[in-house]
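hey so i finally got around to running both of the ones u sent me last week. sorry it took forever, my laptop kept dying halfway thru and i had to restart like 3 times lol. anyway pasting them below in the order u listed, first the sequence line then the structure token line for each. didnt double check formatting much so if smth looks off just lmk and ill redo it

first one:
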Amino acid sequence: MKHVSLLALLPSGATVTAASGPYATPAASDLAAYVLSHERYDAAVNAPSARKDYKNVHVADILTDEYVFPLGETGKSIVLSGYQLAAGFLAERAADEWLELAREQHAANGGADSDGTRHVPDPAEADQLMDRALESAERILAPFEAAPVASLFETHYRGAREFLRLSWEGLPEDLVPKSRRPAVVLKAAADLAPASATQDYDPYGLQGTSDYDVDKPLAYREKAGEKAGEKIGPFLLTMTYRHEYPQVDDERLGTAFAVFHEAGTDIVAAALELKLVKVPPIQSSADLVYVLDTYSGEMLSLALAATEALGAERLCSVFNTHRVVYISTWEVRKPWRGQGLGVALLREALQRLPADPDGRPDALCVAPEPYQTEARYLSQLPPALRAEVDAPAQRLTRHLTEWLDHANLPNVKTHFFIPMAKHEGIGSAGENARLIDRIMESEA
């Protein structure tokens, strides 16, 4: 059998960007979250002792702290430094990947899981594993040792990337027709790609339908000036709207997409995506879960998060009498943050939404967490650090509440905030599956 190197599976380096998949190269945030998930130990008092706050704590501080590491189900434990815990994380990950590769290779050579073959790595490599894993952990964490701990878990852009790269080239093809894109971008695209058949906008194959034109309800290129004291500069607004399921007679889900870009350069400064959700009459949260789960994982997460935020009674009241406008994604490029540009874009978009055919008023639904924190780390962080990481979301909640109280948006009759970060991206698996079961059982 071909030799599978155990040590070669240790990562050589990483970035702060979160990893995905069981054997993806881990990020500094992955290692730090794993370290912080353990109980901190204070040698001076010879007992566990959590930090009271993390305001002036850097990554190097938590890595040199000591932590209690439980030894399986023995009831015993040992004390390890943060670096040692991080090294153990990498070593265990490499060992698991090695075993999986060895089994795959064994199967490819005609072996079977039940034939009693024991897969054992090279003893010399196994002896070096922890030392090499420690070196690997130090390399991964070294660029971030002087950074505040909280900065590892703040992702001002969802998924640690700019929303749709905040550039025209990154906009969804079926949301912004070519006729609405700046000429400079169209020319650049034409230079890179061969000429294609003339087709502006038809993602669903709707040619020939006279009663449905997805581009007409909203398509604006306007100059936005100073409003209500918000200096937003010489930006142009482009907005478009579409139904997600045009084959359904009573349209229940739509997407509105709006961007501000600099008039002179066509650089996108802010981008906003709204989901317009309208459901048939519901009697329980189980009804809402059932309806929205048929659309997408994001809509299922919205149903679960709204259930948690509103409670069963208010949930039915809000969704039965309103069209819920959910801020799916909302970003401002860094140079323009703190200047009111995001709120100005939100106002422009809400004012231009197509009216609901049934006359329902709008309920604005906001999930602050995904824009500030990487949700999957929250459960691992100590309470004091979790509170600090949650602070931007709390500030956003307060800011939007105050703004909505004075915004004078005629069609927005109510608003509510939801803990989307707890449910987003999980779909029908894991904790969401258990929550769905509880909802269905309690309201059967």
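and the second one:
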Amino acid sequence: MLGRRARLWRLLHATWSVAQLGCLGYIWACALTGRRNRPLWASVAFLLTEGAALVVGRGDCPVGQLQAEWGDPVPFFELVLPPRAAKAAVPVLAVVSVSAIVALALRPPGLVASAPRRTRA
């Protein structure tokens, strides 16, 4: 049975991971449509923050050792994927993330239709 810290960490990590996947999807949507807005740049910043953390952790979660000390030695991706797929998840997601940001940079901003303005009669 996991302790309180380990359970809380898993919940936080799961929330963080779902948010990252949402950001990744949003970046791809904006890259494909040419949309540019504040949520897009926040999403890019979020993924770059994760990328920096993975660089610090040399490809692993930088708080993995602390997680083990809290009583949870199982890497997060191994909770939902077989070990081999879990090990491949980080590099695959890194390539998909970098590709999304490159696609965003290469695609010129498009015109996004907005609601027509109302005029007073």
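quick thing i noticed on the 2nd:
Residues 4-33 form the longest helix (30 residues).
anyway thats it, ttyl
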